[in-house]
């Protein structure tokens, strides 16, 4: 039997029709219904009908959590094999914690909705920005950000794969960093369609509010180790997990190191559990030894089940 891990996507993986390939499976449908009742929003309608709401942070975060857990529940109905590790990219870390039984789905939905609200409140729309810098080393991107700051904030915030780093901060500083990166040889440097500059120091206030909210959330020891974005470590203590979650808002997502850590622990296959294939693509770029599979339909799940036997 192969050692395998599950990873859960974050913002950017949402799309209308993202669960269509599951043919309205009852487990998928019931998970969406459950989330809709908890937050009093029709998430299934949002996921299946053309609309702009799905891209609003306050809806995107709960709907991605729901999609990830729906996919996880369907996997569990098909297989009794558990991953050796879990991880999630940014918001996906919350999905991983629910899958590990460290957090109740009900609590996590309310928590990510609150997280979205404080993130949007911390930086008014139009003030912050994020951009992807492609084809530069991590250190060169960090240097370009330092050069572009001019008393504003711009920082490297997502180390997604070798040659793909996302930066975030004040709009003008991000735009300056894009020009500097291009002048220093970046293959591409493009603004991302997001309303919140996640994982940079502009999120400090949101991080503090989230930390306070987390004091009311019950967190247990995960039954599957979860590797956290902020320090690339597994935590078993509730307070350490809460600390990692609140810090995550204003610290970088260390995704390359997360996947490398899995490879180091003799993981051979990684399944992306949730909509899209973004993380599967990153896995291939990070490690040639790891086999990535996106569980985007039941057929992919059945193939992955055979792969790990």
What would your notes on this structure say?
By secondary structure, this protein is α/β, with parallel strands linked by helices. Helices cover 46% and strands 15% of the residues. It has twelve helices and nine strands. The protein has helices at residues 26-39, 43-48, 57-78, 92-99, 105-122, 138-148, 171-183, 204-214, 238-248, 255-264, 278-286, 298-307, and strands spanning 4-8, 85-88, 128-134, 154-161, 164-170, 188-191, 226-227, 269-272, 291-294. Helix 11 (278-286) links the parallel strand 8 and strand 9 (291-294). Helix 3 runs parallel beside helix 4 (92-99), helix 5 (105-122) runs antiparallel to helix 8 and helix 8 runs antiparallel to helix 9. The N and C termini lie close together (5 Å). The model has no long low-confidence stretch (mean pLDDT 95).
